[in-house]
Every structure is written in C-alpha cells, then in structure tokens.
Amino acid sequence: MSSLAWIDFDEAERQRAQRITALFQERETRDELGLGAIRDSIADHLFPGTSTIQTRLRYMLFIPWLYRDLEKRDLPEAQLRTQARDAEIRLADALKAGGESNGIIGRDAGPRLQRLPSSVYWAGLGAWGIRVFPGSLDSLFVALRRRGRSHVTSSGEEAMAGAQAPTVWNPALPQMPSGLLERAVFHLTAEEAQFLIDRLVASQPNSLLTMLAREGIDADCDQIWTHPHLAAFPAAARRLVQHGEIFSHLMHGAALLYNLALSELRQRDDWIDTYRERLEAWSDELDLGAVRAWSLDDFWNVVEHPAHAVRPAAKRFVTEWRELVLAGTEQVVTSPAGRQLVEERERRLKTSQSRYANHAVRDRWTGASGAERLSFRWAQAKSHLRDLANAK
After folding, report:
1. Where are the alpha helices (DSSP H) in 128-189?
2. C-alpha separations of 35 from 255, 336, 371 in Å
3. Which of 135, 185, 294, 345 has the most CB atoms within 10 Å of its CB?
C-alpha cells in the first residue's frame, strides 16, 4: 500500500503536497493513463481556482466569514480547530434550514464529514485573491496560536512575539450576514457577486473564467468548446479551448480502449458490448482532419503551466497514440499496437497495482475508470458563472 508522508520543506512544498492529496480524493481525477498534468494545466489556465469537488460559489464567502469570526477569539489552537470544524458542520444544517438541497457539502454526513468546505475551497480562495494569507489552513491555526504570545528578554523587558494577528482576508470582503449559522442560502447578493468578480479581475485578469464572469455570460452547454460565445473568447483562450477539444476527443479513445481491455480480462460480455459500441461512436465522431492538422508543438507550448509538470513519457504517449489513430481508428481497436501502447502505459504508471498484472486489483474493478471525455472543470466553472449571473 502506498502513502504520502509529510516532509518538512517550505510552505510551497507543503501546499503542493496537499494539492496532490486532495486530487486523489476527487472523483473526476482518475488518471489511469497519466494525462492528469495535461488536463489540470488546461483547466487551471481556463478556470483557475476551481476544482472538481467544488459545488456552489458562495462557499468562497462562507469560509472567509466563518474564519474571520473565529480569528477574533483568543483561544488555544486546539479549541480554534474544534470550533472551526463545528462551524463548518453547522453551516450544512443552516443551508438545509434555508431551503437548499443541492450542493451542500456534508449534507448527509453531519459530524462524520471528512472533507470540510475549507479544504475544498482553500486553494481557490488564494488563487482569487480572497485569501491573502499565503500559507495552508494548518499554518493559519499555528499563526493564530502565536499571536499575542509574550516572553521576557534578558534585560527583563516583555517582548511580544507575533502580537499582531496575521492578515488573512482581502479587506474588501463583504460583511457576514447575521444569523449565518442558523439559516443560509447559496444565493449571492449583487455586492457579493461584484466582490468576487473584482477579485477575479485583479488576480486572474487573463483567464477565460474572468472574462465570462466580468461580461456576465452564463451559457448552458455541455462542453466549453460548444459555448455559444466561443468566437468572442480572447484569442489565447480560444486557442487553448480548441487544443483542449482535440486532445479530449483524441485521448478519449485510449481511455475507452483501456476499459474495453479490462472488460475482456474480466470476461464481462455486457461491459465488452458497451465499450465496443462507444469506441465505434468515438471513431465515427472523431475529426481526423483536425487531428492531422493539430500542432503538438503548439499544444505543449500553450499547455505549459507552472503548477503542473508534463513529463516526457506523457508527451510520448500522446504522440504515439495520435500516430496510431491517424493510421486508422478501426485498427486502433482491433490491432495489437493500440492495446499494447495503452497496457504498457498503465503498467508503467501503476506498477504492482496495474489492473493488467494484479488479479486482485482487477477483480475489484467496477466497470469504468476515466471513461468520460475530459471537460477541464467546465461543469464547476459553469455553475459558478450561473451563481454570479443570478445574483440580486
């Protein structure tokens, strides 16, 4: 069994490790073929501060409100942590009391809740400039513990170590509504929506999310590349969206072939039939002309993101899969070359946990792993944009 151990590097390394830990818990981050860094680079360029486990936008305000209230209390660290957890759990009950039913984090878990809203939104709060404290949530509790702590110097004078509480939130943060933990709703006020838009404009001026938020554009489309305002996107964003569309569609075939191969190993005729049908539909819908004209050199240039390292092996896999597809999509499904490429990639990534090699792991497989097209967190961005557009 593998695990992640904390290593006491600097704060940036600590936060990076926390992001990796969080990714393992997100349902849509199943990365059987090692494409996660590419997927997340595209998503972070287009929709920074989002994650696949975010639900509703007003959590970007709920968390600062609750913690700003807690920060006023001069309590030991352990008590602050307990009260913070209690407040986040009470928030779920307050949302239910306010008539909300969808998007409540911890709606059914209650005190058993494992992923608190603060951990889900902490990175996004920083990316949007709502949180100005640079550290992790754990380091915030430590900083609050140190405030006002005094010691006596060698000269007998009292000196204050960290007498000032750390600045945590943007000073323009709207005031917390009264009775928030008694009754809460997801609906944003006009003032709250403008604050969030202002933070995006200031912190992520070049992102597509900022442009759509600033212009109040709310569109109900399944994929960002089918957006009705695509032609009006900034040139850089439109270029990345077009790259993302080809990459998503092209590599979907590799994911479907992986699931077909496992279905065959499990000897599940129903799953086999499903994936054969899906691969046939994929082949029919794939625009080979667009794939042939696709510039991988340009793709790797625009995808590059400081938070994600795309390894050479991942680039080789994408390149080799593209070459196989251009040789004929029918052959990808029937010939050994495509299956071998996918199997070798998964075995190299998963080693002893490979579903090809490990019977016990394969027997626990439930019939689908990363079998949907990559959407680069458009669903979460679309939800946030709708919340902004519906503000009153």
Report:
1. 137-146
2. 10, 22, 13
3. 345
Q: Are 190 and 392 contacting, i.e. CB atoms less than 8 angstroms apart?
A: yes
What 3-state class would DSSP assign to 69? helix
Task: List Cα–Cα distances, 386 to 48, 58, 220, 250, 380, in angstroms.
Answer: 17, 12, 9, 30, 10
- The length of the chain, given as a count of residues: 392
Count of Cβ atoms closer than 10 Å to residue 159 Cβ: 10
Q: What is the DSSP letter of 335?
A: S
CB-based contacts of 293, cutoff 8 Å, min separation 6: none
- Give residue 139's pLDDT: 93
DSSP three-state, residue 188: coil
Task: Output the CA angle 24-137-54, nearest 5 degrees.
Answer: 50
**Is residue 109 helix, strand or coil?**
coil
- pTM for the full predicted model: 0.88
pLDDT of the residue at 166: 84
Contacts of residue 128, Cβ cutoff 8 Å, sequence gap at least 6: 48, 49, 60, 196, 199, 200, 203, 204
Q: What angle do CA 181, 186, 189 make, to 5 degrees?
A: 100
Cα angle, residue 12 at apex, residues 159 and 16 outer, rounded to 5°:
140
SS3 state at 180: coil
Query: pLDDT tens digit string along 294-325?
Result: 999 999 999 999 999 999 999 999 999 999 99
Lookup: tokens for 245: 């569309």
Asked whether the predicted pLDDT for residue 173 surpasses 70, the reply is: yes
150 strand-pairing partners:
160
- Is the CA virtual torsion 257, 377, 27, 220 positive or negative? negative
3-state secondary structure of 104: coil
Element (H, E) at 63: helix 59-71
Q: Assess contact for 319 and 296: CB atoms under 8 A.
A: yes
**Which residues fall within 8 angstroms of residue 360, CB to CB, at 6 or more apart?**
none
Task: State how far the Cα of 15 lies from the Cα of 5, in Å rounded to an integer.
Answer: 13
Contacts of 322 (CB under 8 A, 6+ apart): 250, 291, 294, 296
Q: Mean of the per-residue pLDDT values for the chain? A: 90
CB 25 within 8 A of CB 72: no
Per domain, the residue ranges of the chain are 31-48+232-378, 59-187
